[in-house]
Amino acid sequence: LILAAAVTGISILIPLLCVSRFQLILAVGMAVFTFISVRRTFRLKYLLILCALMVPAYLALTVLRSHSVSYLNGIFEMKNPHTPIFVTQPYMYIANNYDNFNCLVEQLGSHSMGLRMLFPVWALTGLKFLNPSLVNFPIFVTKEELTTVTLIYDAYYDFGVLGILLFGLLTGAVCALLYRLRARASNPVCHVIYAQIAMYMALAFFTTWFSNPSTWFYLAVTAAAYWFVGHGLPYFGRDM
User: Contact at 8 Å (CB) between 209 and 97?
Assistant: First the structure.
């Protein structure tokens, strides 16, 4: 219990020390999804306690980042320039990301035929340095300062509407498989993998996720932990 508390404390300190609201939301969200996956329930009082802790932490990180509220509200074209930044940014991350997708649909001349979504391969293998043309694709956004895009952005960039349909079918099949595996898995790390995918789906408006090398790095580390717990530790047994 002491070790678990210490590791949990460190995992919470990392996004705070990095002054990263995104990492804080990702870490806490994954912890919540893992808890729900293991316990199969989540009481209202837990949600209230979590909100009571998260809201001050989010506001504190917003202040520590020292953003110019008037500058950001000007970029976001908010009707009320005095809108608090902790209200403006979550709204704009959702609204503008889909505006950026609309911009892509209107301005894209030709599809990249799979090269965009294979960016993790080019990045993790170093091929992007040997052949820059593999990643030399313009990003279509409404404003140059607002470059975040939604989950289906690269799927459309590659194959259009067909790409979105195939991407949806594939992610749906993977989620269904994870749901079934989680229900009967004895390896506890399976719940963490489930929580990762659940978090990516919950924040589908935030980024492309599966075109991001960091996502696959996190999944690879979790998969390694899954194998280690199931096969590398005699204590847990090899049937896991």
Answer: no
Q: CA triplet 138, 19, 8: central angle to 5 degrees?
A: 115
Whole-structure pTM value = 0.81
∠ Cα 28 183 203 (to 5°):
35
- What residue ranges do the domains of the chain occupy? 99-240
DSSP category for residue 19: T
* Average confidence (pLDDT) per 10 residues, the chain, 240 residues: 84 80 83 86 79 77 70 75 76 84 93 93 92 91 86 95 95 91 85 92 88 92 89 50
Coarse DSSP helix, strand, coil percentages of the chain, rounded to the nearest 5 percent: 70, 0, 30
Spatial separation of the C-alpha atoms in residues 186 and 222, rounded to whole Å? 16
Structure tokens given for 51:
């909100």
CA distance readout (Å), 91 to 27, 186, 204, 217, 218: 21, 40, 14, 29, 27
How far apart are the C-alpha atoms of 103 and 175, rounded to whole Å?
29
How far is it, in rounded angstroms, from Cα 104 to Cα 154? 10
What does the DSSP assignment read for 124-158?
A: HHSHHHH-GGGS------SSTT-----TTHHHHHH
How far is the CA of 4 from the CAs of 7, 13, 99, in angstroms? 5, 14, 42
